[in-house]
Each structure stands twice: as structure tokens, then as C-alpha cells.
Design a protein that fits this description.
- About 25% of the residues lie in helices and about 30% in strands.
- The chain is built from seven helices and 14 strands.
- The strands form two sheets. A seven-stranded mixed β-sheet has the order 6-5-4-3-2-1-14.
- Strand 4, helix 2 and strand 5 form a beta-alpha-beta unit.
- The model has no long low-confidence stretch (mean pLDDT about 95).
- Bound molecules: zinc ion (ZN) (2 copies).
- One zinc ion (ZN) binds next to loops.
């Protein structure tokens, strides 16, 4: 049994690269799960570019890509993900109809066209399958790996993902604004007992007051959810573009006091679930 998580992009909204945030990293949302030699990727933010290079170097020829939603910071890396141009690659892409969004293929085709990009989805010659799922349905990804989704509170709709294998579990809960009680309660239930939860901790409490309705949460709320759901470890995720390494270290220290298993996600970080 092996279950390893690698953070390829932990930043929210837009990639950043300045000397002040280089340690936590500036690539946008992308997380890779390696479970029993299977590859499951969550979101295709700019961090997926580097993952693509690794996947080809490793000789991996099959992967699942679970998408939370269609915002650019979660999709922008896909045209730069080399495996999509490899005929030997089989890629299953899953996303949910949330908030009246178009189907998975249309979400991707819609942002990959002139005048935005010269590369269209038809140029991608990998063996790609597009799956539209309903939130809450349990996906069997084979090898005893299951993926479940739940709606979050986010403009246009978004899915949280939970991946289970044997008795290990990982929860990806990004792009969610707390405050809708029914959704909050459902998400605590959804994340219950996870070994690791990644959570949208974009704002401080002060920032949140000015950005209500933007669809994001706070690091303090992340700790509350982690406690309520009794997860073992919490990674603060979707860092604001302007958040410096020093600011993140300070947030991490404060979060650690509220929830002992809390830390801030870093690009390149690997967590093994033993
Ligand atoms: Zn986002
Ligand atoms: Zn979003």
C-alpha cells in the first residue's frame, strides 16, 4: 500500500514568481496523488507543466485528472502539459456539472482557441476521455481507488474531491467560501477522518471582511474545519498571490497553534500517508 501526495502548485488566482515568495512557490493549483503506482492529478493549474515533464520522464502512460472547476488558475497549465501531445498517453478527465457549467470537453475547448491560444483541444493527440459526473457520485478509478466529489460554495460552482484507497484518504477542498451552513456541514462530513486535507486558506480574517462573496475562505476557518472533521493533517492552500514567504510562515505558526496538524503547502512538497 502506498499513497503519496505531491504539491505541484499551491498558489491561487495567478502564478507568481518574486524573490519574496519563492520558497512556498508560485505555481497555481495542481496536486498529484501516486497510489499503488497509479497517477491521479487534481486540477491543471500552472504547476501541471512541470508534472507533465516528470510523467513523460518516468514513462507513466496513464493518468486520471480530476478538475474542481473551470477557473483559469485551475486549468491554465493544461495546454503546457506535455503528456496530452503523446499518443501513448491515456488520460481520463473528470469534472462536474456545477452551476450550469458546460461539459468537461467544452470547458477545456472553450479556453483553448484563438485569439486566446493557438493550440486547440483537437491538437492534443493523447488518448483522452472526458467524463461529466454528478457531485456525490463515487468514481471507481480502478486498483481499489475511489474518488468522490462534493459541491463547494464558489462563484460558478466548484467540486471538492476526496480520494480513498484502502484505509487512506486525501481531501482536496479548494475554492470554497464558508458561511453557507448546509454546505459547510456537508463538507465537514465529506472530509471526516481524512489523513490529509488541502483547504482554501486564501485570506486572513481582516482580508475576508473586504472580500465576502469572492468564493474563498480563511486559514482560521481551515483550522476549524480540520478540527471538526477530525482530519489528521491540514495543508493551507490557494495562497493569495501577494502573500510573501514571511507572511505565510507567520500564518503557518498561528495556524499550528489552533490545529497541531496544520502547515502551509509548498510547491514541490511530498507527503506520504503511511
Ligand atoms: Zn482558484
Ligand atoms: Zn475558482
Amino acid at each position: 500500500m502506498s499513497f503519496e501526495i505531491k504539491i505541484w502548485g499551491c498558489r491561487g488566482s495567478i502564478p507568481v514568481a518574486t524573490p519574496e515568495n519563492i520558497r512556498f512557490g508560485g505555481s497555481t493549483a495542481c496536486v498529484e496523488l501516486s497510489i499503488k503506482r497509479q497517477t491521479v492529478i487534481i486540477d491543471a493549474g500552472s504547476g501541471i507543466r512541470e508534472l507533465g515533464t516528470q510523467i513523460l520522464a518516468r514513462g507513466t502512460n496513464q493518468a486520471h485528472l480530476l478538475l474542481s472547476h473551470g477557473h483559469y488558475d485551475h486549468l491554465m497549465g493544461l495546454p503546457f502539459f506535455s503528456p496530452v501531445y503523446d499518443r501513448g498517453m491515456k488520460l481520463d478527465i473528470w469534472s462536474g456539472h456545477t452551476g450550469g457549467n458546460p461539459c468537461t470537453r467544452d470547458i477545456l475547448a472553450g479556453f483553448m482557441k484563438e485569439p486566446y491560444l493557438p493550440v486547440t483541444i483537437d491538437i492534443m493527440c493523447a488518448n483522452m476521455s472526458f467524463h461529466d459526473i454528478k457531485a456525490g457520485s463515487v468514481l471507481d478509478l480502478g486498483h481499489g481507488i475511489t474518488a468522490t466529489s462534493a459541491p463547494t460554495n464558489h462563484p460558478g460552482g466548484c467540486l471538492a474531491w476526496r480520494v480513498d484507497s484502502d484505509d487512506r484518504s486525501f481531501v482536496y477542498l479548494s475554492d470554497h467560501e464558508h458561511g453557507n451552513e448546509a454546505i459547510d456541514v456537508a463538507l465537514v462530513k465529506f472530509a471526516r477522518g481524512a489523513d490529509l486535507m488541502v483547504y482554501d486558506a486564501m485570506y486572513t480574517d481582516e482580508e475576508y471582511e473586504k472580500r465576502k462573496g469572492f468564493g474563498h475562505s480563511t486559514w482560521r476557518q481551515a483550522c476549524k474545519v480540520a478540527k471538526a472533521a477530525e482530519v489528521k493533517e491540514l495543508l493551507l492552500f490557494h495562497h493569495a498571490p501577494e502573500r510573501t514567504d514571511r507572511a505565510l510562515e507567520s500564518i503557518e505558526a498561528q495556524a499550528h497553534k489552533l490545529f497541531a496538524g496544520a502547515s502551509a503547502a509548498r510547491d514541490g512538497q511530498i507527503i506520504k500517508l503511511d
